[in-house]
Structure formats: structure tokens, C-alpha cells
Write a structure and sequence with these properties.
Shape: elongated
Radius of gyration: 32 Å
Largest sheet: none
CATH class of the largest domain: Mainly Alpha
Number of helices: 29
Distance between the termini: 74 Å
Order of helices and strands: HHHHHHHHHHHHHHHHHHHHHHHHHHHHH
Number of domains: 3
CATH topology of the largest domain: Serine Threonine Protein Phosphatase 5, Tetratricopeptide repeat
Structural class: mainly alpha
Strand content: under 5%
Helix content: over 70%
CATH architecture of the largest domain: Alpha Horseshoe
């Protein structure tokens, strides 16, 4: 490869031929380990032969490389699909030089058919086909493939190859701007900003980098507010997109792009408020998990006291409540958190650990305390219908209809069929005493099997 890069491809042939011989022997003895190396050497051999003006001689090694890589990609597409796609393009280029354009196209058609279910695999193949189309002068086909590759690779989360596909489009736009522009419907606003501004503006890029490198998010938003006339432009947004394509793993760049776009649409104050609210939610999520993971109830109480400002809040309770339907084991923590907010952390833990205290509290505490108490009791007696029924009633009284239906589902699952009529009668009595509440969904849930 070094000799080829130095413009001496013919001199590079003997070393690559020797490498092929060595790897062929190694692959025969240990195919799992050395077949990838053999395929790479064969691919390089084909390239060197083509560069030396002997494309026909390059066909057998590239065909063998494709055959090997096709088998490897079938077993491990994540690792080997890009190599296979690259070899397909190399083979297609040789065939095109030799006048077999239809055969070259068929190579990609087969690969796309074989990998139809995988968006990422299709994106990888389309990227290479776009490059081949471009080299063959088939501009419209190259544009179509590159656009689809960008979308597929973006969906698959492959930012690196998405950046490569974008660069193909940028190059095509520089060569043939009109066809590229026409490929986006006017209703979509024309080409995206990273394509409308295909070249990075150095001054804009420097300012964007300075913004991204601010020491914290407070300073970042202050910097944005101070430089809005320059940063809130297509040029700066495109510069940020170029930086992302060059550094596809940078979370900081992605976040700044989201902030920039949001600010252009809704203003810096709105985006700033949303962003910091999201940071608080992320902090609450992490703290909730740490609290749940405490080793015992004493540590639980200590942790809640230590992080009361963040955890004993409406936001934290709502966040935990949203997790309970998918993780019922968290119901007790939801009840404990809610109870700690109204009677204190220590008293809430005492109620949790002492059934007598729990029963006393359920009878004596005001209505505002009943839902967290009911959640707590229901989590302790999972196999008993009565606490689940009480939980459903408490949720109804609190106006939490969705939660009441979920609780009544647990009640129905926990009770025997002969118990259900009595519970239904009690539910009807409750409805008569509370005509302002709609129990239709809850009643339907309780009697679902009977109605069936």
C-alpha cells in the first residue's frame, strides 16, 4: 500500500502477492482467525493490479475477497458488512472499467436483496453503490443512493458512515448543484442546511468550537445569548454539522446542535429553561435509582434525607410513578416516597416496617395520605386482593383513573372468582357514595372475566 501511495503500484505487487500467499496458508490452518486478513490482502492485490493498469487480472482476487467477506458478513454483519460493501464497490469499479456495467449493478442488487431486513446493512451497501455510481458518472443514481444511505444510517445510529454519505452528497452538490437541489421537494424546504452550506466557514467553525468548549452549561447559554447574530445562522449550524460528521462520537456536539436548532425555533430563554429542567429530571432519575439500590431501609432513610431537595418533589414522584406499570416492584418505593413527603422520612419508614402502624395510619390519616399508604400496603401484600382493591379505591379518590385501573387489574388477578361478586358490590356501593367519580373503567376491569 505504501508503494502504491508513492505512485509505484507495480513495485507494490510482489509484496502484496507474498502477503496473499502467507495469509492463504494461515487461513487454511485457522480460518476463523485469518480469513479476514486473507480477504483484505486479496482486496489490496486487486486494487494494486487495477492501479498498475491490469484491471482484468484484478477480477479473480476481488471475487475471492467478496466470496470470503460474504461468508464473514453472514456470520457477523456488524463487523464485516462494511468490508463486504467496500469489496463490492471495488469489484464493480473493475467491471465498469471492463465494460460490464450491468454485471456490476447486479452485485449491489444482490447485496441489497440479501440484506433487505437490515436498515444499517442497506445503508452501508447504498453508500458504496453511491460512490460507484458517482465514479461511473451516474449522477442521479448516486444522489438517490446517497440520500437513502444518509437516512438509513442516521436511523441506525451510525454517525460515522452517515457523515461519509453526507460527504458524497456534498461532493455531488459541488459538481452538479441543480440535480441535488431538485432531489428535495420544495415542501421540505429544499436541501438540509448541512448540504445547502457545503463548505465550512472557518470563522463560524472557530466560534462554534469556542461555544462548545465553554466550561459548563450556564456559560454555554450565556455565550449563545451573547453571540446570537452569528451563531443562529445557517452558516454556524452547517459548521456544527460538519464538526459532527468529522467527530461522530461527540455527545457534546450533538447536544449543542439540538440547542442551536431549538434556539433558532423557540428562542434562547425557552430552550434554556427546557434544558435545565431536563438536567434536573436526569439527576432525579439517577438519584432515584441510587435510592432504590440502597442496601437496607436504614440506608434508604438516610439517602432520602440527604437528597430530599431533589427526591421529595412532585417531579421525582411523577417520574417514579411512570416506571411502576413496567416495573411493579417499584410500587412500594412509590408509596414510601409519597408517604415520606407528607409525614416525614422516618415516620414513613416506620409505617413501612410496622404493619400495625400501617393499619393505624390507614384508618387515621387524612385523605391526602391514603394513596401513598395504599400503594405501600399493596406492594407488601402482593398476593392478596384486599390491599389491591383498597389501592384501586384510593387511586380513584385521588383522581388517578389510569392507576386505579392498573390497581384493579392486580386485584382481579389476586382474587378467586367467588370473591369477585362481593368486591363488585363494594365497588358499586363506593360509586353510590361518590357519584362525582366515574368508575366505569375500573368496574369493567374487575368484572372482565365474568362478562366474558
Amino acid at each position: 500500500n505504501r508503494l502504491a501511495e508513492a505512485g509505484r503500484p507495480v513495485e507494490g505487487l510482489p509484496p502484496i502477492e507474498e502477503a496473499v500467499r502467507i495469509y492463504r496458508g494461515l487461513a487454511a490452518a485457522d480460518p476463523t482467525r485469518f480469513q479476514p486478513d486473507l480477504a483484505m490482502s486479496l482486496n489490496n492485490q486487486s486494487n494494486r493490479l487495477a492501479e498498475a493498469g491490469r484491471p482484468a487480472e484484478g477480477l479473480p482476487p476481488i471475487e475471492e475477497a467478496v466470496r470470503i467477506r460474504r461468508g464473514l458478513a453472514a456470520a457477523d454483519p456488524t463487523r464485516f458488512q462494511p468490508d463486504l460493501a467496500g469489496s463490492l464497490r471495488g469489484w464493480a469499479v473493475l467491471l465498469t472499467e471492463l465494460g460490464d456495467v450491468e454485471v456490476a449493478a447486479a452485485l449491489f442488487d444482490r447485496a441489497l436483496t440479501e440484506h433487505a431486513p437490515s436498515r444499517w446493512c442497506r445503508g452501508v451497501v447504498l453508500l458504496e453503490r453511491a460512490r460507484w455510481h458517482r465514479g461511473a458518472g451516474q449522477i442521479m443514481a448516486a444522489i438517490g443512493d446517497a440520500i437513502e444511505a444518509v437516512a438509513l444510517l442516521d436511523t441506525a445510529g451510525d454517525r460515522w458512515r452517515r457523515g461519509q454519505a453526507r460527504q458524497v452528497l456534498r461532493s455531488l452538490a459541488a459538481e452538479q448543484p441543480a440535480p441535488v437541489d431538485e432531489s428535495w421537494p420544495p415542501a421540505d424546504g429544499g436541501p438540509p442546511v448541512w448540504l445547502r452550506v457545503p463548505h465550512t466557514d472557518t470563522a463560524a467553525a472557530d466560534l462554534v468550537i469556542e461555544w462548545v468548549n465553554t466550561k459548563d452549561w450556564e456559560e454555554s447559554f450565556d455565550f449563545l445569548a451573547a453571540h446570537m447574530p452569528t451563531l443562529l445562522t445557517d452558516v454556524s449550524e452547517a459548521a456544527l454539522e460538519h464538526l459532527i460528521d468529522a467527530n461522530p462520537g461527540s455527545t457534546a456536539l450533538d447536544l449543542h446542535l439540538d440547542i442551536l436548532r431549538g434556539t433558532r425555533a423557540r428562542g434562547v430563554a425557552a430552550v434554556r429553561g427546557e434544558f435545565f429542567a431536563q438536567l434536573v429530571a436526569q439527576g432525579q432519575s439517577a438519584r432515584l435509582q441510587e435510592w432504590i439500590d440502597t442496601p437496607d431501609w436504614s440506608a434508604s432513610a438516610d439517602y432520602l434525607n440527604e437528597h430530599a431537595e431533589l427526591l421529595l418533589t412532585d417531579q421525582a414522584e411523577s417520574l417514579l410513578a411512570s416506571l411502576v406499570p413496567d416495573q411493579p416492584s417499584l410500587l412500594g418505593y412509590l408509596g414510601l416516597l409519597g408517604l415520606a413527603r407528607v409525614i416525614g422520612v422516618e415516620d414513613a419508614h416506620h409505617v413501612l416496617l410496622d404493619r400495625t402502624a400501617r393499619d393505624t395510619a390507614a384508618a387515621a390519616e387524612p385523605p391526602a395520605h391514603q394513596l401513598p399508604l395504599a400503594r405501600l400496603a399493596a406492594s407488601v401484600d402482593l398476593g392478596s386482593a384486599e390491599p389491591q382493591f383498597a389501592y384501586a379505591i384510593a387511586a380513584l379518590e385521588a383522581g388517578a383513573e389510569t392507576e386505579s385501573v392498573w390497581a384493579m387489574t392486580r386485584c382481579r388477578d389476586a382474587c378467586a372468582s367467588w370473591e369477585r361478586p362481593a368486591l363488585t358490590s363494594r365497588l358499586d356501593d363506593f360509586a353510590q357514595a361518590h357519584p362525582e367519580l366515574d368508575i366505569t373503567s375500573v368496574r369493567r376491569t374487575l368484572t372482565a372475566e365474568d362478562d366474558a
